[in-house]
Amino acid sequence: MKYRQYANTGLEVSEICYGTMRYASKDGVMDEQARAGARTLEEAVELGVNFIHSSYEYGTRWLTGQILGKHPKRHDLHHMIKINVPDWGDPVFDAKKFRDQVEDALRDLNTDRIAVVQHLHRGTVEQKLGYCEAGEPTRLSEYNHVTEPLKEEFARLQQEGKVGFLASFPYTMGYARQAVTSGDFSGLVAYFNTLETEMIDVFDEMETAGMGFIGIRPFAAGLLTDKRVNRDLLPEDDRMRDLQFDRFYDQLTEFRSTLPQEPDSWTEFAVRFSLSHPLIASTVVGINTPEQLHSAVSAVDKGPLDSSVVQQAHKICTDFRQRFGVVANMGGVPVY
Predict the structure, then answer these.
(1) Residue 23 pLDDT exceeds 90
(2) Would you call 291 exposed, middle or buried from its count of C-beta atoms within 10 A (0-12, 13-18, 19+)?
(3) What is the pLDDT of residues 92-117, one digit of tens each?
(4) CA distances (Å), origin 184, targets 95, 110, 142, 291, 316
(5) What is the DSSP string of 305-321?
(6) pLDDT digits (tens, 9 = 90+) for 32-87
(7) Is the pLDDT assigned to residue 130 strictly greater than 90?
(8) CA 247/CA 253 separation, integer angstroms
(9) Rounded Cα–Cα distance for residues 38 and 19 (Å)
């Protein structure tokens, strides 16, 4: 496993951040899915993965806690948790709610410290607007009212040794620019893949400010995998047949036409792409089975792609956003 430093923090994390969204059921039952997930996480740690991502929303921490509670390497692991405060409809930032979610994560994960808190400010925007630029003006108008008490409570938790660094999960470019220019965060956690490269536009400013970046959704909600990259071969009832994904398949078709040859594996290509910028410390990969783990590790072993490939993808991404207008990321699918 290879490691990179997150921002100028001294925190060394594995290039693969183990994503736990779907590696177990939410009902706490040790079924076949959970047994496969347990084997996979244990093997990932043995292979050198030291960065683990979770959220109370996923409902899978019960398994993570069981696996890591007495693991001999548990003190060598770094956790990143997603916290949504204020959440849908919350009028203000609630310091107690924020603290409670940190304390819950510490208990559930059997750890003494959360390395990175990934903060998502949802707030008073309507849920249907929360994942696109339509809700951006409202969130930006609330920005200072949220971040000032957020920083104060985070500083208290930091002094207690319970958290390390605060990162913003911006969702939109306007919010990302505000988070970068404000200096309120150590870095950003955001979507970054062949079809969603928007955050490149703030990378230079982030580097100057000593900030870091952690990528999420390297497979673009499953589109950039060997299973779904060729849309014509999908079953009629596959969700990628929905009209909301037309634009993204068109974008992918244009990108594919610029490549000298098709990748042997698009799944592998996607992982390598997601690490193809020096600012990126790690990419969160949803890993549910040993086979998926080995595929991700194999991709990392081959190293990042040439920067020219990333720039070409970004050029096409920018062109499509200008051509079709600003739309919700991946049709508003809030997953990685």
Answers:
(1) yes
(2) exposed
(3) 999 999 999 999 999 999 999 999 99
(4) 17, 28, 14, 39, 31
(5) PPHHHHHHHHHHHHHHH
(6) 999 999 999 999 999 999 999 999 999 999 999 999 998 999 999 999 999 999 99
(7) no
(8) 10
(9) 13
As a three-state string, the secondary structure of the chain is CCEEEECCCCEEEECEEEECCCCCCCCCCCCHHHHHHHHHHHHHHHCCCCEEEEEHHHCCHHHHHHHHCCCCCHHHCEEEEEEECCCCCCCCCCHHHHHHHHHHHHHHCCCCCEEEEEEECCCCCCHHHCCCHHHHHHHHHCHHHHHHHHHHHHHHHHHCCCEEEEEECCCCHHHHHHHHHHCCCCEEEEECECCECHHHHHHHHHHHHCCEEEEECCCCCCCCCCCCCCHHHCCCCCHHHCHHHHHHHHHHHHHHHHCCCCCCCHHHHHHHHHCCCCCEEEEEEECCCHHHHHHHHHHHHCCCCCHHHHHHHHHHHHHHHHHHCCCCHHHHCCCC
Sign of the dihedral defined by the CA atoms of residues 303, 22, 73, 107, in that order:
positive
The hierarchical CATH code for the domain 3-193+200-220+281-304 is 3.20.20.100
211-230: pLDDT as tens digits: 999 999 999 999 999 999 99
The single residue listed with the structure tokens 């409902």 is 59
> 129, 32, 55, 137: which is closest to 89 by C-alpha?
129
Contact criterion met (CB below 8 Å) for 125 and 171: no
- Strand 51-55, strand 16-19: pairing: parallel
pTM reported for the whole predicted model: 0.95
Res. 123: pLDDT tops 90? no
Distance of alpha carbon 215 from alpha carbon 101, whole angstroms: 23
Task: Give the pLDDT band of residue 334 (cuts 50, 70, 90).
Answer: very low
d(CA 100, CA 198) in angstroms, rounded, equals 33
Q: How far apart are CA 284 and CA 190, in angstroms?
A: 10
